[in-house]
Structure formats: structure tokens, C-alpha cells
Amino acid sequence: MGKKRIIYQERAERLSKAVDIAVKIIQESDSHGDDFKTPMVNFCNQVKQMALNPEPQFRKVASIKYLENDFLIYWNESADKEVDKFWIELHKNGIDYEKKDTIQAVLKRGRIKNIHEFDNIIDNIVVAEQIGRITKEQVIE
To answer: Contact, 84 vs 25, CB < 8 A?
Structure first.
């Protein structure tokens, strides 16, 4: 028997739990100041609100996938002790999101497979080059 399809409400509740974990980690952070914490917590709470109380036309699995993607960008693209703690806490709580490096996955595959990957790359490619995660040649590729 194959994997059971997850319905909207189950995905929304899973995302809500992940947001709660993120908010707790952000608020307890001693690495970041309020100039980072306040907008991040606000963003997280907005994601949770949109997931749990969507407008009728957005109560679709495709819509929750966009929210999951948007929420997880920071946690996938950053690296510090809070990010590590976030992924550990998700695992401990049985939340099955996986940390992904979209840029490396696309480089390995040789193509962008969907709009989520395209948006992620557009948003992060300059920073990835600036911090040395990818080379100038990889940017061109």
C-alpha cells in the first residue's frame, strides 16, 4: 500500500506545529535582536493564521504547499544553532519536513523543476554566491 495522501487540514495542523516550534526558538534566541525577532515572529504567526483559517479559494493542498515553502525558506537556507535546534525539534515532534538546499539540488539535477524552486533560487542566489555557498560558474549555470 502506498503513502496516504495528506489532506489540507492535516498539512495545516502540521505547519501550525512547526510555526509554534519556530516562534519558541526565535523568542528564546540569544543570537538575534528584536530587529530580527519581531518581524520573524510576525511572519510566522501570519503563516499560521493563513494555514489554519484560509479563504475558501485557498483551502487547497497546492496553497498549503506554497505556505510551507515560504515558511521553510529561512530554515532551509540559514545555518546557526537556532536553525539546527529547529530541525531537531521538528524531528522530535514527528513533523516530517526535510531540510533542503534547493540551489544544490537544482545544480545537481541540471534544471529547475517548478515555480517553488524558481522563486527560491531567485530569492537566494545572490546571497549564496556572496557567502561562498556557490561559485560564479554555478550562478551562471
So the answer is: no
- Say how far apart CA 55 and CA 51 lie, in whole Å: 9
| Positive or negative torsion for Cα 64, 70, 71, 72 | positive
Alpha-carbon distance of 126 to 15, in angstroms, equals 28
pTM of the model: 0.77
Task: Return all residues near 73 (Cβ < 8 A) that are at least 6 apart.
Answer: 120, 123, 124
pLDDT tens digit sequence for 21-46: 999 999 999 988 999 999 999 999 99
> Three cell numbers at 108?
545537481
Grid cell at residue 111: 534544471
